[in-house]
Amino acid sequence: MSAGAVVERLRRAGLTVATGESLTGGLVSAALIDVPGASRAVLGGVVTYATSLKAQVLGVEQAVLDDGGPVQAEVARQLALGAARLLGADCGIGTTGVAGPGPADGAPAGTVFVAASLGGAVRARRLAVAGTRPLVRRAAVGAGLALLLGLLEDREQTTPVDR
């Protein structure tokens, strides 16, 4: 998925994005910021690698973390929403999972959850990626960008256009 396409859509719509990242460790933000002109759309990102920081910094509900751990769709959703809220962005992207090489938090390596938010809409996706740690992390970046792009495309199709 092209970060350029996401940044272009955000810029065209006058929207901003923030990221709440765990397993990607800032790679989503880096991909977005690599795009020329990203400063008009990208506000920033927060890496909450430690489970406790997910709750303390981005407001992931402690009960959700206690009940299912950090590797679940609801955590990705709350990371996306929490980053957008904390940084004052219109959109958010959240990533969590296990990059490997071994299992962690009760999930096998390659288990990834990504989410994107735009206003009240939030979409999440689960991935099961076979491969190296860098491959798992890159797949998470692409999936998070793709989710946000889908939300932006849906918004464009439902937003009235002045003629």
UniProtKB/TrEMBL annotation:
It holds the Pfam family CinA. Signal peptide: none annotated. Residues 5-150 form the CinA C-terminal domain. Gene3D superfamilies: CinA-like. Coiled coil: none annotated. It comes from the Bacteria. Transmembrane segments: none annotated. NCBIfam families: PncC_domain. This is Competence/damage-inducible protein cinA. The lineage of its organism: Bacteria, Bacillati, Actinomycetota, Actinomycetes, Micrococcales.
